[in-house]
Design brief:
Number of strands: 3
Distance between the termini: 42 Å
Radius of gyration: 19 Å
Order of helices and strands: HEHHEHEH
Structural class: mainly alpha
Length: 105
Amino acid sequence: MDVESLKLENPPYDFDAAFRSLAEGSPQMLLVLSSTFFTLFRSHIAELAIQQRLPTMFIFKTYVQAGGLISYGVDPAATSIVSSVFTRSKYSTGRNPPISPLSRP
């Protein structure tokens, strides 16, 4: 298995050119490692992947919600909720977090 990387370093990013370049190499799949700048263009990135018929894996669920195929990372919204419950439990009840229930079955 060959692994090749395409690094987009300096904004503004030319996603159209990047996907044209990828298509020339006949890739089997694409893994998109995100940055805050990429997040603004998640719908466009997902659209380009679909146009190129390129299975694409993303780091965040929001890319999938924008049309991407699959994500493998944590859900930032869910993480925020859990951490807020954890913090509230610690500071408002005085209990130690390890014995504070974060979720119930």
